[in-house]
Amino acid sequence: MTTIAEKCAAHGRTYIAQGEYAISGQEDAVISTLLGSCVATCLWDPVARIGGMNHFLLPEGPPSGTVVSSFGANAMELLINALARSGAARGRLRAKVFGGAEMYKGLTSAGSRNGLFVLSYLFREGIPCDGQSLGGYHARRVEFVPAEGRARQKFVSDARVVETLPVPAKTPDVEFF
Q1: Other residues' Cβ atoms within 10 Å of the Cβ of residue 138
Q2: Which of 46, 57, 122, 173 has a CA-to-CA distance to 65 between 20 and 30 Å?
Q3: Looking at domain 5-155, does it have CATH number 3.30.1330.200?
Q4: DSSP assigned state of 43
Q5: What HAMAP family has UniProt attached to this entry (predicted)?
Q6: 74-86 pLDDT, tens per residue?
Q7: Both ends of the chain: CA-CA distance in Å?
Q8: Do the Cβ atoms of 30 and 143 come closer than 8 Å?
Q9: What is the dihedral of CA 117, 80, 93, 73, to 10 degrees?
Q10: Residue of 174, 148, 118 whose CA lies nearest to 45
């Protein structure tokens, strides 16, 4: 897998996976993804009528820089810069965010950390968030029409939350004699 996966959604449907993003200004383009604890950010410039979507795994990654586009800040900058190169103005961008489910209840907080990260990032960068569907316990399928800034989601009904049992408290050392 490459470290940067940019797709141009020219016509029709473009699917993005973890660590990827796609942009388009074509009227009939649709960008889609499937999310669990990952987050997808849909950004759109309503004047330039161009938009894009990313799909990231965690807010931050290891210092080694492996697959940097899978981590929050890098994924956001890659998408914003690609939109700017295609004629979008950073100051006009609007956002809609999805994902951040807790797919393994009690085991990890990756979903909630992703959701908090993206909302905080957008706030710091002055990008208004027009809509969000974050958290919960279900996977989502998201479709984004970048030229119009329209997004829709569908919860995936066959995805199940994996319940984890609480780790028992450490028992005191017992000595038999």
Answers
A1: 18
A2: 122
A3: yes
A4: E
A5: CheD
A6: 788 899 999 999 9
A7: 58
A8: yes
A9: 10
A10: 148
Residues 35 and 42: their CA atoms lie apart, in Å, by: 13
pLDDT in tens, 63-121: 555 545 555 577 888 999 999 999 999 999 999 999 988 876 666 677 788 888 899 99
26 burial level (CB within 10 Å; 0-12, 13-18, 19+): middle
Chain-wide mean pLDDT for the chain? Answer: 80
Token readout for 144 is 């984004």
- Cα 148 to Cα 57, 132, 145, 158: the distances in Å are 26, 17, 6, 30
How far apart (Å, rounded) are the C-alpha atoms in residues 125 and 77? 11
Q: Is 76 helix (H, G, I), strand (E, B) or coil?
A: helix
